[in-house]
């Protein structure tokens, strides 16, 4: 079973294998399960995609998306404190430049144009992939630095019923409880049904036994998190599938909770509903998302309120044309969404707007070549986004039974629809703000080597250059009014490698990652800008490293995870910075079976070396802390 | 190594090793002067960008040689972690007023004024939103504090009352909190009394007896009065709502009200007396439609009867202003933005530019040692 999970091998699976992801049918009458793969991955030839394997997801299932991504990817996070706002900087871009897709729908907060990753727990989705670089032609707005893909997927091939209950008990009186059930009906003659119901709740008191660490204050905060997931899928013999996905999240953060004058409460609630009808050729989606943020200080009874509704519809049609040694896939589609937002800072009237997208995505597969060429045009009320093309190619240089070597390259234009805050905020917003205009180039080489059954090695190296003109930002020179002032060039290199060695009784693996992100502002727009030209962007570490290793014997597993980040500058001229740091986590897991119940026991030590590191408010983050996690599974799944 | 102290055990060992080497090299090539590295010169208070908690103090040596940055961090290997609200010295010690974004994390760092080595830290609940400090007698300093601030939009921002913390520098502790008006702000010593201003919406200037540490009856001035300076004639000047008000500190009588400027769009601030205490300098500033601040420096005599703001003395907007009383040199802080280093511009008392030195984030005040 572990082997199917792919352990760390799957880290480097590119779009190639996803596209060919047909699995052979067994004795079912229903058609073979089609792993359709998400659109951005399939049509982004030449770009790097990283899938986070299920073992890692399982290890982080009681934590937030921030935690899993900081230990597995070079995405840098700007963290305001434990359980507080955490925003991403992907490949040296800003927090507005990472698209977060949930089942193909961008769930960034439209008011802020970003996701607070501390509000998204890993338990909220089944699969996680990270797509590097601009993919605006496939994804749309925000996909400038990269995209994060959260997916819910039933395991059609494993009919059965699973009841799962999990409990985490951690230092500082932090608790998480998860309960859920999953089922997949046996593949009948005419149809098959699958579903998931899942509920989670977290009470993080963050009750530190210290007020300071290394002479830096540790800020008090309490987080209460709740969530509910309901997925339902029905497919028939014609391979038509109807699915409903619901994800409700509620994140309630209070900073300095014990002082009734100054306590600050931020409550973020999201309601996400999505219905998808899918055949081999056609995809129809209809979704509704409501994002609510309530912020209050001192007296919580009358918070400042922001509420945005989005009604989303999308239609996609795919055509496949066989050619001599391969095939062409052409996917054309359109999207229309309606936004309605009511934010205290925008004035009394709700603001409504429509957005639409038209896109055509093409993919040509030959025996050794893979090409993609995509085009998207977005339309937004009172705003004019640019047409966004991209092209990419991959070439399989070597393909033998033991090894493969693939060269990749892509060129993409990207854009970002300014956030609602940027356009509509009464005082500092700027309705005349222009689109940001990005141009991403990247090239890479991926290698896999598997000389025998026991040993495997894979590496991938990517270089990129992403130039973003008309970079809009809240200009501190003009009282933080938003303007298109800057030209940002981000260039860098990513390398990762993974090594696995298996014997019948023992498994072991090693993953290493290094990223260089050199990201700087290049335009002189006033006399003092010369002090910031060419300087590294704030909060973007130039060097990041990831290292994890595991050894497993039967159901027992020891994992060590490390992240290293170089300094993060906090001023545009780089005169001040937060120091770099190394963080290490250790996990020990085992599984016991009591009757039909399999209980997975995880013991975790976080921040093993008790490193003092600071968040962006210059408060110390917590020191060494511990957690014990129990996951009980009652499983009737045939494996 | 420079800015913040973070270390895994390995890094700590490396850092310690490096420190030993550095210390070794220091003792090798320096004699006594190194013992009082900040004994004379000018300190620039950089208030920092509020939410970044990154205020610092820059040191400008008397020789005019290169500036030293974030000297508290250089000496103590940790940053001040807050906006720096002010600095004053008393009896060989320096007091740095630090205002953190988070309540209960404000503090007053007490350092050796010569070496900037940290001696003690006054924290919450003794210190909460420190605003201004003044030496009142030997080893005794007053620090005005707003106390915990609430929600501005609900009108509960200023706690009532604020307080003045009495700091005893022999023990480096707060010995008393004198209840004061809400939003208690600038403190000025004149004779045996401290005059305390406010930004909290009161109209009286508070008076505190420094021998008893007791509040006396206040002086009615006008909206949000804040004391500015005592001039060559021994008169206290207080700013309130577009006027400089001259107060007789003996009989507490308001003697004169001087309207500052005629242009209502320009707001005056940062009043400083010249070296001979005969002139006031101040900044008149305004915002344009794009929220960009503009302004100039103006000057008038304490004996003037009107203060027009038509002809600037120096055409430049300053975020900080002070006059070196020994030399008469005008120090102006320039803040290009709160996300990059500002500059200190030095002018002759005639208004001629001498030089420009890079400081840190938002140079807002100066201390002449």
TrEMBL record, chain A:
Q: Which residues form a coiled coil?
A: none
The record's subcellular locations are:
Cell outer membrane
Q: Which UniProt keywords apply?
A: Cell outer membrane, Membrane, Receptor, Signal, Transmembrane, Transmembrane beta strand, Transport
**Major location, coarse class?**
membrane
Q: Which GO terms describe its cellular component?
A: cell outer membrane
Q: Which GO terms describe its molecular function?
A: siderophore uptake transmembrane transporter activity
Pfam families reported in the protein's UniProt record: Plug
A GO BP term here is: siderophore transmembrane transport
In what way does this protein cross or attach to the membrane?
Answer: Multi-pass membrane protein
Source organism, top-level taxon: Bacteria
Presence of keyword Membrane = yes
TonB-dependent receptor plug domain: from which residue to which, for each copy? 45-146
**InterPro entries, A to Z:** Beta-barrel_TonB_sf (IPR036942), Plug_dom (IPR012910), Plug_dom_sf (IPR037066), TonB-dep_rcpt-like (IPR039426)
State whether keyword Mitochondrion applies.
Answer: no
Protein name per its UniProtKB record: TonB-dependent receptor
Q: Which organism is it from?
A: Larkinella rosea
From TrEMBL, chain B:
Which InterPro entries does the record associate with it?
DUF5074 (IPR031815), Host-pathogen_enzymatic-act (IPR051200), WD40/YVTN_repeat-like_dom_sf (IPR015943)
Which residues are the signal sequence here? Answer: 1-30
Q: Which domain of life is it from?
A: Bacteria
Tell me, what's a Pfam family for it?
Answer: DUF5074
Please give the Gene3D superfamilies that the UniProt record associates with this protein: YVTN repeat-like/Quinoprotein amine dehydrogenase
Q: Which UniProt keywords apply?
A: Signal
Name this polypeptide is given: DUF5074 domain-containing protein
Native source organism of the sequence: Larkinella rosea
